[in-house]
Each structure stands twice: as C-alpha cells, then as structure tokens.
Write a structure and sequence with these properties.
Length: 223
C-alpha cells in the first residue's frame, strides 16, 4: 500500500524528470526513473506519471513557443531513453497470440505517442510491430497487406495530418478490407464522428484507451 505522502513524492519525481528533459540529460532522467522504482512505484505508473506527463508538458511548452523545436527534440530524446529503460524493468504478460501493427501516418514526425502505445500493448502480451514516424502511405498499407495483423493502430498528433489519416485508412481498406483499425494521438480527442465515418474501432488519446479498444475488439471476436 502506498504511503499518504505518495502524491507529493510523485510530483517531486515528475518535476525532476521534466528538469532532465529540459536539460537534455538522459542519465539524469533514468536516475529519476530508478528513484521511482526504488520507492515502490511500478513501471506502468512511472511510464504514465513521469514519462508521458513530462512529454505532454514538453509538447505544450513547444506549442506555446516557450521552448524551441531543438529543445523539444532534446526533451523527447530523454523521454525515449526513459521509455526504453522502463520497458526492460516492466513485467511481460503472457502471450495473447495477437499481432498488432502500430505506425504514425505519413508526414507525422511525432513518434513518441505511438512508441508509448506500442510498448503498452507489447507488455500486455500482444505481438507488436512498430513502424515509427512518417511512414509513406503505400509502404504502410503494403506492410498491413503482407503482415495481416489482427489490429492496426495509426497515430496522429497534429491536426493537420488528419486528412492523411483518412487517406491512409482508405488505402488500407482497399488492400485489407476487414482488418480492425484504431486511431490515436493528440489530434483524435474530439474525432469520434470521423472515427465512426471511417469505420475504425475507435479513437483515443492515450495508450490505455487504445489498450482498452484492443481488448474489447478481441473479446468481441471470441464471443
């Protein structure tokens, strides 16, 4: 059971991790993660409350022109190192024997949310293939055709990439009509009507929401 002072301690860790991001100090960032683990926080909590929260703050500071693109990239690099470190410190669930392909849409350079979703799904036992940022539409759709995944997750962070998301979903549908597709990322928070029109299983901002969608989809297939 966590102590009554857990919330202030977590806030202190979150602040220290953000400082490491702004300084571009990956070792300091990992040291904060290790402090959190030593205090009894699990990898899932630290991934959500430190790494994701820190990256959201970095993104907001960039959008508000309070930090430069260069510093935003520097902070993201620290978050990715911390994410990789937590991947190896987290328990791995039993295999679910379901393959999930995770990719950013063409033009989308912000791969962190997709990487976070990929790690979350893989640690829950899914066989995840992660394609990364800015994958050309034909290449992405061709990979779906070749792999025949049980689920495709497409990530879009910036709203001006939404038209490309629509085109990518349409192209995947042409090649693999029945594959379930989920969409996620910062641009998808109020996109439920478009998600419905595209015929995707849902839209979510967080890795946890995408995990819930995946689990609901596969439960429905087994029913």
């Amino acid at each position: 059971m966590q102590r009554a002072s857990a919330a202030p301690v977590l806030a202190e860790l979150r602040h220290a991790f953000l400082d490491a991001q702004l300084a571009g100090d990956a070792r300091a960032g990992v040291a904060v993660i290790e402090r959190g683990l030593a205090l009894g926080y699990d990898a899932t909590t630290l991934r959500r409350e430190l790494v994701r929260a820190g990256q959201e703050t970095i993104g907001r500071l960039w959008q508000e022109n309070r930090i430069s693109v260069a510093r935003e990239h520097m902070g993201t690099s620290v978050a990715l190192v911390a994410l990789a470190h937590l991947y190896w410190r987290a328990p791995l669930s039993a295999p679910r024997h379901r393959r999930v392909l995770v990719s950013c849409v063409p033009g989308e350079q912000h791969a962190f949310p997709a990487r976070l979703a990929a790690d979350t799904l893989e640690l829950e036992g899914y066989d995840v293939k992660f394609l990364g940022a800015d994958v050309p539409r034909e290449s992405l759709a061709g990979m779906v055709h070749d792999m025949k995944p049980d689920l495709v997750v497409l990530s879009v962070t910036l709203a001006f990439h939404l038209p490309e998301l629509e085109r990518t979903v349409s192209r995947i549908r042409e090649l693999v009509p029945d594959v379930p597709i989920a969409i996620g990322g910062g641009a998808c928070s109020d996109w439920a009507p478009v998600a419905s029109r595209l015929g995707v299983i849902g839209a979510g901002r967080s890795a946890e929401e995408l995990l819930s969608m995946a689990e609901a989809t596969f439960r429905g297939e087994q029913a």
